[in-house]
Amino acid sequence: MSATPLPVPGPATVAVERWDPRLTRRRLYGSIFYGACLASIIILLLTLFLILWDVLSQGLPWLDPQFVTGVPSRRPEQAGIFPALIGTIQVVVISGLLAFPVGVGAALYLAEYAGNSRVTRALRTNISNLSGVPSVIYGIFGLALFVRVFGFGFTVLSGALTLTLVILPVVIIASIEAIKAVPDAQREGAYALGASRWQMVRRAVVPAAAPGMMTGIILAMARAIGETAPLILVGAFTFVTFLPQPFEGGYTVLPIQVLDWATRPQADFHGLAAAAIIVILVLMLVLNGLAILVRARLSRHIQW
Amino acid sequence: MIAPPEEAPARAPTTLGPGPTIRIMAAEGRATAAPDEGAEPVIEMRDVSCYYGSFRAVRNVDLAIAKQRITALIGPSGCGKSTLIRTINRMNDLVPNYRTEGTVLLDGQDLFAGEVDPVAVRRRVGMVFQKPNPFPKSVWDNVAFGPKINGYKGDLNELVERSLRRAALWDDVKDKLKQSGMALSGGQQQRLCIARTIAVEPEVILMDEPCSALDPRSTLQIEELMAELKRDYTIVIVTHNMQQAARASDTTVFLTMDDDRAGYVVEQGETLEIFTNPKHQLTEDYVSGRFG
To answer: Which of A201, A240, B224, B244 could cross-link with A83 by S-S, CB 3.0 to 4.6 Å?
Structure first.
């Protein structure tokens, strides 16, 4: 085929007028942006390092087996955090176990069943807003509902239920995002094989969204470990020398123990607070590590 | 939510040259009889129109699809080919505000009758999609998915192997049944989707541009597989690739659309006839590459 030749660019002078030849400037913009990103991550790492260094240098001298297994004491050298550690584990595990099914169920309803009406959109926005509500407000609500109306008293159960409400929005939002990220082709594939809606959700959507849901629960548990304010309102004490029973009697959690020690005047207690923070960090690492292992296993077949 | 089917990006029309010189690489065992002669229709459409809300995507289609043959639906982008084949497994029912008018018969049974459950229809009418969509599960679990949800009572291992062999994939994957189905190549993924479809033993297999995401070699493999599968199954394929329709199908249906974008059937007949001796000018223009 004798096609007409491609138009040849005009003389160099014309090209200079029409096209910006300054490639160096474009490259410079790229370098500036790269530098800005690098600076951001350095600021972050530096902050993190300073916090860790501060905590470790103050806390490590106090961290010994006796500190982990002991109970609080007025004498710093005898003080331990075992009740708070057990209280934290109980509260966080119970609230995680409650928030996961409820959160995933709510997310499945909103993202998979409810359609995209104005009502569901408004609902989704409101749930996002809920995650920004100061957690102390959940504490007031928990005090009124769980402690008083339901009569659970100042127990681990009340604390865990209150924290469940605090972390539910996080779980729901992350799960909705995970469900929406599942390609429609997966749903069609399941339907085309004769799946009912429930089978499609159960066997196509949930397995594909599970890793994202796990990410949500990881974030939620991390938040739950650190919560202090709502638990003060639903009766976590500051000085507990006994192990908590989930459904009766008092309890405390690590952040409250830290708060108590950190606000005392004696320097030794500040060291104890730092040591307790180390324990919180380790606990968080262990829980997140477990969740990440589960997530890796759930996502081993997913590649999109 | 399931969105309405997307048409694949239109390919540049393949120029086939003037009618009589078209090379038709006939699929093996092509019936030489005229379309309606002797071939018993599995699917019959009578005055079928499809609507998305108030938009009419397909109008007044009368169609008979013969048993154990390959029927190709061709036509320009947006003429409703995908919408039309999705009436056969009621896939479009999942699209909000969609409705079908007219009658679609499968073995004489009205698929849109009140008592018919679309879930039951879809086991009998399988579907392979434009982009391979294996589940993020192992190869074995991908094939076992359909049998499991449909309460298959036989030996699953045997069924999985048989389906993979049938889809000409067994030799490729027999050592990686536990690996992710998504780790396979594009062509293998599409054959996995075909294996998954035939594992539930459907009567009809719908293929909605099954090769548009594949390279020519994988495309050829799929076409060979189709020729093999038509001994047991009735195959309906939507394709943008006219050469594919010409070489792989027995019957061709040409659709186009009105100014209001409602698609309709212009002509249907033996593939050879449609490509070499079309009755309508529109068909002639399309298959010769002058339009579309």
So the answer is: A240
The residue among A301, A302, A303, A304 with the most chain B CBs within 10 A of its CB, best to mutate, is: A301
Between positions 222 and 261 of A, the ones with CB within 8 A of B are none
Would residue B163 count as lying in a domain? Answer: no
Which CATH number covers residue A100?
1.10.3720.10
Please answer whether residues B286 and B74 qualify as being in contact, where contact means their C-beta atoms are separated by less than 8 angstroms.
yes
Contacts of A70 by beta carbon, 8 Å cutoff, 6+ apart:
A78, A79, A80, A81, A82
pLDDT tens-digit series, residues A162-189: 999 999 999 999 999 999 999 999 999 9
**What residues make up the domain containing A206?**
89-298
CA-nearest of B133, B190, B201 to B163 is B201
pLDDT single digits (tens) B32-72: 434 444 567 899 999 999 999 999 999 999 999 999 999 99
Q: Would you call B149 and A185 a contact, using CB atoms and an 8 Å cutoff?
A: no
| Residues A144-169: b if buried by 16+ CB within 10 A, e if exposed | ebbbeeeebbbbbbbbbbbbbbbbbb
Task: Give the distance from residue A102's alpha carbon to the nearest chain B alpha carbon, in angstroms.
Answer: 22
Total domains present in chain B? 1
Q: Which residue has the tokens 């539910």?
A: A168
Let me know if residue A40 belongs to a domain: no
Token representation of residue A36: 């800005």
Which A residues, 34 through 93, put their C-beta within 8 Å of a C-beta on chain B? none
B99: containing domain: 36-133+203-287
CA distance A79 to A64: 11
Q: Give the CATH number of the domain where residue B224 resides.
A: 3.40.50.300
Size of interface A-B (CB pairs under 8 A): 92
| Residues constituting chain B | 292
Let me know if residue B52 belongs to a domain. yes
Interface of A with B in 275-304 (CB under 8 A): 299-304
Q: Kindly state whether A198 is in contact with chain B, defined as any CB-CB distance less than 8 angstroms.
A: no
> What's the whole-model pTM score?
0.82
C-alpha A123/C-alpha A121 separation (Å) is 5
